[in-house]
Amino acid sequence: DGGITQSPKYLFRKEGQNVTLSCEQNLNHDAMYWYRQDPGQGLRLIYYSQIVNDFQKGDIAEGYSVSREKKESFPLTVTSAQKNPTAFYLCASSQGERLYYEQYFGPGTRLTVT
Amino acid sequence: AQKITQTQPGMFVQEKEAVTLDCTYDTSDPSYGLFWYKQPSSGEMIFLIYQGSYDQQNATEGRYSLNFQKARKSANLVISASQLGDSAMYFCAMRAVGGATNKLIFGTGTLLAVQP
What we know:
The complex is a heterodimer of chains A (114) and B (116).
Chain A: E1 4-7, E2 10-13, E3 19-25, E4 31-37, E5 43-51, E6 54-57, E7 64-66, E8 76-78, E9 87-94, E10 104-105, E11 109-113
Parallel strand pairs in A: 2-11
Antiparallel strand pairs in A: 1-3, 3-8, 4-5, 4-9, 5-6, 7-8, 9-10, 9-11
Chain B: E1 3-5, E2 10-14, E3 19-21, E4 24-26, E5 32-39, E6 46-52, E7 60-61, E8 64-69, E9 74-79, E10 88-96, E11 104-106, E12 110-115
Parallel strand pairs in B: 2-12
Antiparallel strand pairs in B: 1-4, 3-9, 5-6, 5-10, 7-8, 8-9, 10-11, 10-12
C-alpha cells in the first residue's frame, strides 16, 4: 500500500538535545511538507520541499532543519535552538503544485521534551 | 493576508442527523482551493473534500458535501447521516496561488461529537 510513514510515533528527549523525526513516502510525490500542531490549534508549516535537494522555510522554521536527499525521504531535525519543541509533528506529501492536489499526511510523531 | 476562520470550537450531533461545520476564508487571490480534513483521535489527517474557486457546483463526496458561497467567502462542510465514527476534529484549509508558495493554511478546527 502507498502511503507516508513517520517514526517513531512517540519520542521523548531531554532539553538541549537535537532530535530527528523520520518521514518516508512511497507515493512518488514531488512535494513534501512538515507541520507542527499544538493543542487546540491548527497546523503550521515548518518547512516544505518541492523537489529533491531543494527546500524552503515555512512560517515557523526557526529552530528546525531539514534535508531532501531522496525523493522518498524528508527528515526533520528539531534542534536545541527550538524554544518550545514539545508538539505533534505531521509530515505530508502531494503530487505537486496544482491547487487541487490534496496533501496526504502521515500518522504523526508526538515529541515531548523535558 | 490569507486566513481561515472556524468559529465553532465544538459541536454535538445525534447519530443519523446532518451537521454543518462552518468555515470562512479570506484571500485576495482569485484562484484558490478549499479543503476539509478529518483528524481522529489517533492523529492522522484524512482528506475529505475539495472545492476550487472556479468550480460552478458544490463538491460532494459520499456523505460529505461542501456548501460553497463565494460571495460570502464561506465553505461549510455538511455531513449527512452522521455516524459514531464521524467523531473527530475537522479542519478547513485553503491553498491559494500568488504567494511564495501554494501552501495550505489551516483553521483552528471544530471538534465534532456524534451522540448515539
